[in-house]
Design a protein that fits this description.
The complex is a heterodimer of chains A (about 575) and B (about 160).
Chain A lengths: L2 E5 L2 E5 L5 H7 L23 E4 L4 E3 L10 E3 L3 H16 L15 H8 L23 E3 L9 H9 L6 E3 L6 E3 L16 H5 L5 E3 L3 H8 L4 E7 L1 H4 L15 H11 L3 E4 H22 L5 E2 L4 H10 L13 H12 L5 E8 L3 H6 L10 E4 H10 L21 H4 L6 H15 L17 E8 L2 E9 L1 H13 L6 E5 L16 H6 L2 H14 L10 H11 L5 H7 L9
Parallel strand pairs in A: 1-5, 10-11, 10-13, 12-17, 13-14, 16-17
Antiparallel strand pairs in A: 1-2, 3-4, 3-5, 6-9, 7-8, 15-16
Chain B lengths: L6 H10 L6 H12 L6 H9 L3 H10 L11 E6 L2 H5 L2 H12 L13 E6 L11 E3 L2 E3 L4 H14 L1
Parallel strand pairs in B: 1-2
Antiparallel strand pairs in B: 1-3, 3-4
Helix pairs in contact in B: 1-2, 6-7
Classes of the chains: A alpha/beta (about 575), B alpha+beta (about 160).
Chain lengths: ~575, ~160
Amino acid sequence: MSEYMIIDGIKAEINGEKNILELARKVGIEIPAFCYDPELSIYGACRMCMFEDERGRLEASCSTPPRAGMVIKTNTAKLRKYRKMILELLLANHCRDCTTCHMSGKCRLQEFAYKFNIEGVRFPNNACQLSPDHSSYCILRDPGKCILCGKCVRMCNEIQSVGAIDYAFRGSKMKIATAFDGDIANSPCVGCGQCAAVCPTGAITIRDDADLVWKALGNPEVEVSVQVAPAVRVGLGTEFGFEEGTNVMGKLVTALKEMGFDKVYDTNIGADLTIMEESNELIHRIKKGGKLPMFTSCCPAWIRFAEDKYPDLLDNISTCKSPMQMLAATVKATYKGEKKHVHVAIMPCSAKKDEAKRAKFNGDVDYVLSAQEVVRMIREHGIHFKYLEESLPDVPFKEYTGASVIFGASGGVMEAALRTAVETITGQKLGNVEFSEVRGMQGVKEAEYAVGDLNVKVAVVSGLKNATEICNKVRSGECDYQFIEIMSCPGGCVNGGGQPFVDAFKRSDMDYKGMRASGLYKTDANMSARKSHENSAISALYDNFFGEVGGHKAHELLHTHYEPKNK
Amino acid sequence: MTAFDYTVLDRAIEQFGNKESSLIAILQYAQEHYRYLPKEVFPYLSKKLGISEARIYGVATFYENFSLEQKGKYVIKVCDGTACHVRHSVPILEALRKELGLSEEKKTTDDLMFTVETVACLGACSSAPAITLNNEIYPTMTPEKAVALVKSLKENA
């Protein structure tokens, strides 16, 4: 028999909802909350989500499971008064420079202050005097905007198991801090930006380098080229009125040209190059008894993570540079112009900003812009994005295959590598190029394929907590995979920290990651060339420039090595 | 400078168990030995116990009893619980701070001889106002008696 409870007079059937807040949402009642996120553990700190029971007692709906026969109200005079007081106190400790805040219009605190008609704050405010932490290339922390909801801490620890930040001190002195309250750049932070993705205010945002790029664009002495990563094209459309997951690459190319970029290239070429090198490396390792399993190396946050926490597994990571760095190295090495050449990369990622600064990469990428920054630049330039004509990227880095565009989704690199590796090993054309077992938004996916006389066992992991579990298994020898794809952000780059901000409610209501991923898979399905080795531009590159796959020049420009963080 | 002695931490881990829930006990053990929590403790315990340094720092800063700063040879705790407070503990605290050039922020003298801090209740209310010197109770204090105590310690140093 079904069980019910009454919420605001509505009979709500209980079906195993973990708390009253979720149940209320199912019957159309939105209970306000700052610290609640269905993906994270329950913290119960903000007290905005309180309800009133029949006896006038108040409890937090996020931390109370529904019970049959309960009768509660979510909007009473008492609750309104409490919520307004909570908001007033939060605002009193919040640097309210909303007009110059990147989160303006997306900030939960701003939204609630407006919704709950907060007309003034009676307390003095010193929050703007707290100095932001500019130390990281990836994220910017502004403690003056922190409301101590702790979502960043839970994300960093529970989903990413990085543990760069935590709650420190106590009572009114409590704050979110790194160990010894030091700079985030000197912490174990890997720059994934998932903390910024869940921060309801502007307390953690992605570092903004747009000014530096505008400066280069405005300098007639400089040629500026740009590459656009696969996940960006299905991520930023929503900011301009497109449905989630719409591929807007054509319009983005036009917009970038209008903004003054001389050449627009597609990171997909870098991805195809990566597959050529990486599948070759994998086959080599399998056939010649190299170190297995081999991990993918595209994700810079994962690389940082491994260098810090798994120094003993660094030889298992593919020596291939990421698609961004491969393409940048190729673009810089083949540039024949007279002018100074600045190369920009538009990424769904904050950690790419740090990757570009690695000394080994010689500044091949001068600036990395997240999708968020590009959205702001497009707006700043006064472009009506929705009505733009579509255009194609520039030669010689425009022609790509379906294999490369799916890099943006968790499992994409694996699938792309398999398409090429299987055909190379068997020497036969694949009937079906789709490896559906490695698709989807689950954190851990496993598959086994018979390839010729080989049995190839693979795993695809996203989220660093999941990565930790698989790395521990590799360390202890409990698993026998040959190839493991790891992406730091849950779901892969489609959910990267640099993608446009997705509101907490939308995060739980809508499979935005899956929609973006299916946008990429749709693009792949419509391509005639769906395997990296069928890319004629890539063949031409090897014929005319690199020579052999895995050859000397390729090694010099397309491969790298890793170093333990604490030697 | 001599190398940091990690065996203290190893002993603590052995005694209380290599698990997350032993953290507070291990920190207390370490503090008893070093008289504060030196920086070296954090990365070492983080690695051994599998807890992030940030979280250990959070625990260490949450509890008033843990100190991240080196304390003086003589630690004076002035009780400011209700009983001591109404019997004028604040003038004692002020007199001690003045004598030693300390304040609410600066709790330890530069020569690492004296630390002056407050405590919420020593449980010695019948002896109010009370202070402790290295965990030994000095009952019914006055500002003069407190200053005289410090002076005699200085002379014997």
